[in-house]
Amino acid sequence: MKIYRKIMVLMGILLIAIVSVGEVINGEKKEQLNKVLSDISFSLETTHYKNLDIDDEFSKNVLKNYLDTLDYNHQYFTQAEVDEIYEKWGTQLDDDFLKGDSRAAFEIYDIYKNAVERVIQYQTKLLKNPKNLDFNVDEKLVYDREDEPYFLTKKEYENYWKKMLKSSILSLEEYEDLTYEESIDRMKSRMVTRKKLLEKKTTDDIYSYFVNAFLKEYDPHTTYLSAKEITDFNISMKLQLSGIGAVLTGEKGFIKVVKIMPDGPAAKGKELQPEDKIIAVATDGKTFEDIMDWPLGDAVNLIRGKEGTTVKLRVIPSGSKTAKEYTFVRENVKLEDRGARYFIKEAKSKNSTYKIGVINLPSFYMDFDAYNKGDKNYKSTTRDVKKIIEKLNKGNIDGLIIDLRNNGGGSLSEVNNLMGLFIPYGPVVQVKEGGRVSYLGDSDMTTYFDKPVIVMVNRLSASASEIFAAAMQDYGRGLIVGTPTFGKGTIQTIKGLDLGELKYTNGKFYRINGGSTQHKGVTPDILFPPTYDSAEIGESSLDNPLPWDEVDSLINGENNGNNNKLKEYLAKKHMERAANDPDFIYNTKRYAIIKEITKDKEISLNREVRERETKELEDKWLAITNEKMKAKNETELKDYKALEEYNKERAKKDELELLKKDGEIIETVKILADEIAVGKKR
């Protein structure tokens, strides 16, 4: 998250998570809220996968979670206020959880609300006399305070918020091309907006924050949704299918892109990517509106609209300090439009040319509605892949690549069915629920495709994708190449409550070799340079993930088909090529730039220094891009503006055609050709 926090400061958006109780809690409402909390504590005590001691240590951890939810950057509360809160509530919340007492939620919130109002008043005062803001002094702002202590003195507090104001003004000048006077006016307007937002949140919103502070102690996938949030969730689901075609989430004040839905406006545009942050929205010709710290449902409502209308998003791409503006025409994205895509590539190895089929799977999909209605032509991953393999076999392919990069999962039954195409029979995944272990497996005794296979994965390959990749690896049925996967190996179920729903973890998935996919994910046999920072993305980056563990193995180690000598040979050949491959060199340098930005916690408040640092970063991106283009005998770009135009033009190209030219796919085709050549030699 650190890179994005810096970016938001650069863009002049204050890190304000403003919440407010806009209604008085009457006796009946209070009883309802308390009953829900009591029901949740009982449900988790009896059905959650993880057993927790509800004691004073639990209470302190919950309180920290709640304070971090309200003030995740440690910039509103003072140390004195935090001490006061811990003195009263530090060892009380465990008892309140068991008996269903939610008073602390609102008393602590009132302290927070006063702290936010204090900031607004102070910055409004500064804006009345902006001549006191000096932009020529050589000072820096520590923008990432998540691990910093709370402010001890008023002087520290005001100095920080003065610097935040200066940074916002500089950003408006730099990124929106406003004059100094226009930037001051914009900031004054923002202060009015922030004040209005203080009245936006309801009792249910605050209660949800509080309850989820308890649930975070269990694991990151156990959550409570209020009735209002369920409505917001339904809206967000509609967004996935009828707006821009992107799955969004709210995370520490940011609206983050989780997944791009195939065949939607975002997928067609190719610019918006997972892990990008949407910071402002302009809809139907209106001016941009900042959405930092907005509730997810409100942000989704702003992005949604009638089919055929236009929405503009201001986005901070991963690894960039500069905001981009993307324009989308809203449209309906039907589930049945999603599906597997394929093509054939060729590669030489040991003086022979081999034809390799490539299947890109965006998810493990299945049209359950059509299936339940008895529609014989219902759409599913396995059915589509089976048809594709038939076509590829007619083209006499020598091997097959299954591309699961960015595949966030889907239907467990489809994982099981798809695996059945590549093995004669046997278990596919183990499931542990209620202390008992069972398994799902293939039993049709036939193998639909028996030629060499490679599965491609990356950090965004999660859940069902990991189960498939792990099974292919454990059986030795196919090599896994790419980067370690997400590590989502838990099972959730939903329980209805009087006010909302509880989603809780009640089981875990295990590989057939006994190891869990939880936390560790799947480690490829051949590693590619990372695209995403594992410290920022993945199960291990989340708070309180369930640990990795193992159960009994279901496979015979002597018969699992693994060949370590072959893997070592293929890895060596890959490394020799990658050392001089323009795409792999670029990916390695790109990741290094992202890591460099992530480590930096400070930003200059000097105009000249700020402009120079921005230019230096743009030059780095231009340099590694031109280095790649030169190595490919392509025309180099003149400047950073030309790079932006190049990326826009590239985004207009057909996605399948881009996949055919994808550097990782091209290298994977060569790896598989090497494997086939070795097999034929034997």
TrEMBL record:
Gene Ontology biological process terms from the UniProt entry: proteolysis
UniProt keyword Hydrolase present: yes
Keyword presence, Ribosomal protein: no
Xref: CDD domains: cpPDZ_CPP-like, Peptidase_S41_CPP
Gene Ontology molecular-function annotations: peptidase activity
Domain PDZ, first and last residues per copy: 234-304
Alphabetized UniProt keyword annotations: Hydrolase, Protease, Serine protease
InterPro entries noted in UniProt: ClpP/crotonase-like_dom_sf, PDZ, PDZ_sf, Peptidase_S41A, Tail-specific_protease, Tail_Prtase_C, TSP_N
Similarity annotation: Belongs to the peptidase S41A family.
PANTHER family: CARBOXYL-TERMINAL-PROCESSING PEPTIDASE 3, CHLOROPLASTIC, TAIL-SPECIFIC PROTEASE
Name listed for the protein in its UniProt record: Tail-specific protease
Source species taxonomy: Bacteria, Fusobacteriati, Fusobacteriota, Fusobacteriia, Fusobacteriales
